[in-house]
User: Fold this.
Amino acid sequence: MAALSTQLIVLTVILVFIGFVLFFSLLQFLMSIHPPRFYESNTPKDYGLLYENASFTTSDKINIKGWLITSETAKGTVIVGHGYPFDKGNILPVAKFLYPDYNLLFYDHRYFGESSGSITTVGFREVEDVKAAINFVHEKFGKNKSVALYGFSLSASAMLMAKPEVNAIIADSPYADLEKMITHVYRIFGPFKFPFVLTTKALSNIFLKLDPKKVSPALAIKNTSIPILLIHGEKDTQIPVENAYALKESNPNIELWIVKGADHGQAHFYNKNEYEKRVKDFLKKHME
Assistant:
């Protein structure tokens, strides 16, 4: 009887653990693709910048909304993307320093801000948003004009995976590999994290037809000849700095700047003057 009782306890513990893994992984998955959205009320007008509303459609029929700021002295156009789970207004105060040297297109990724879409895929389908933004700029200014991409976190990762025909990419705090990011999310469970990782990967395959192993900016840029400036905070708690080193290892031609003491997306805040100088110098080198 004692042996039977022990077996029942063990079986109960195993079933409870499996149930917890399934429940927690599903909850995490749903929160990841449908997070709370943060909206900023500021517009370019608040900074004395004239702009026009932009709208364009992706290959999978998502309507993307943006702001286009044009300059008579522009040496090309910089397409600016935001991080997760924010909108274009969140990154406006950081990236506006590029005006009037360049036209600026700020856009909302699918699901976020004013754009349509019922979910975010954390970079996978967002590649189509990037491509649609580039097409919009080409139609507006002509394909012979210089174009650069400037992304943060989510958008930076999508831009690296887009394999675009642009003059340059500035990627601030991107991840290198989605599968490793999933593992990072469950780090709180220590050695018991792997059932959660496997379950989340299975949910991604089932509901999104997405294999996290193939969602890899590091793999996408391996053979690219596009000039890339990679910026990452040394103390990044959301996307650890190891991602930056993995991207650099994948393509040694990348220009890498690790900002001492900076957490996720704080590089500009920690070292504003050097940040803006590095970005401007990089664009001047590759766009003019």
Remarks:
- The two ends are 82 Å apart (CA to CA).
- The domain at 17-287 is CATH 3.40.50.1820 (Rossmann fold).
- The CA atoms of residues 81 and 155 lie 5 Å apart.
- The mean pLDDT is 95.
